[in-house]
Amino acid sequence: MSLRLSTVILPYRRWHDGGRSTWTRAEQLGFHSAYTYDHLSWRSFRDGPWFGAVPTLTAAAAVTERLRLGTLVTSPNFRHPVTLAKELISLDDISGGRVTLGIGAGGTGFDATALGQEQWTPRERADRFAEFLQLLDRLLTEEAVSYQGDFYSAHEARNIPGCVQRPRLPFAVAATGPRGMRLAARYGQAWVTTGDPKLYENGTPEQSVQALRGQAEKLADACAAIGRDVDELDKVLLTGFTPDRSRPLESVDAFVDFAGIHQDLGFTEIVVHWPIPGSDFAADEKVFEKIALEAPAQLG
């Protein structure tokens, strides 16, 4: 399978002041997908402009035709399956079936307390994530759903006419641990990782590759345990969080080397951040565009 190249566009620019043109340019450059973060705010961007993921993706759907769209990633931190399902069905309809839902368990950042709640423990995040996915899967595939769980409930929730994509839009499940891998194996059409966060500061690229190989093997084991072929799942690497940091975007050759190594691990999609000056995602935009235009052909 040829390696797909995608991008993630952070929602920090006003739509009529660079926002719209970035999404349309992503399509012109031939990216397979363009994603955005689904946060209420994020790290160093907290005190600056930051827009909502679903309205941003809806606007992007209206000005693009081929580009797939999605979140990398949403989480239960400030979402409820019933309302999220309704938004996703609407977005899938507006885009003509071009939406992928990247979804994870959430973390301990600003999203975790923005609604006034205490941060959930890792155990509770994992428990909530499992229940969230189970209910969301039903809401997107059944016309009416009633459900009572430990954390989420639904009472005769209607989702007619359902997704354009059948039986529902694809889930790209972010996971590194055993429970998350099992959820990816059960519900995912794709698996997402950013690598091993413990290696970001002091690890080496070689150690990162080894860690990613181990993660992919755990995913294969989780699929085998339920009788599923792991090759049914796309494997998505969101870059920028491994020890390589931004080095793969320094040149076409650097990117092709990086992507080729990870393609050999079984990854089917590499996602790069659209350059943002003065941030952790700073990069030469001309080189970035050159990579988008030339690297996919070299990777085959």
How would you portray this structure in words?
It contains eight helices and ten strands. By secondary structure, the protein is of the alpha/beta class. The mean pLDDT is 96. The strands form two sheets. It has an eight-stranded parallel β-barrel with strand order 1-2-3-4-7-8-9-10, surrounded by six helices. It is 40% helix and 17% strand. It is globular, with a radius of gyration of 19 Å. Helix 4 runs parallel beside helix 5 and helix 7 crosses helix 8.
Topology, pairings included?
Layout: E1 4-8, H1 15-28, E2 33-36, H2 53-63, E3 68-74, H3 81-95, E4 99-103, H4 122-141, E5 144-148, E6 153-158, E7 171-174, H5 178-187, E8 190-193, H6 205-225, E9 234-238, H7 252-264, E10 269-273, H8 285-299
Parallel strand pairs: 1-2, 1-10, 2-3, 3-4, 4-7, 7-8, 8-9, 9-10
Antiparallel strand pairs: 5-6
Helix pairs in contact: 1-2, 2-3, 3-4, 4-5, 5-6, 7-8
CA gyration radius, whole angstroms: 19 Å
The helix tally amounts to 8
Low-confidence stretches: none
Q: How much β-strand is present in the residues?
A: 15-25%
Major sheet description: 8 strands, parallel, barrel
Question: In whole angstroms, how far apart are the ends?
Answer: 8 Å
How is the largest sheet built, in terms of strand order? 1-2-3-4-7-8-9-10
Overall 3D form? globular
Instruction: Name the structural class.
Output: alpha/beta
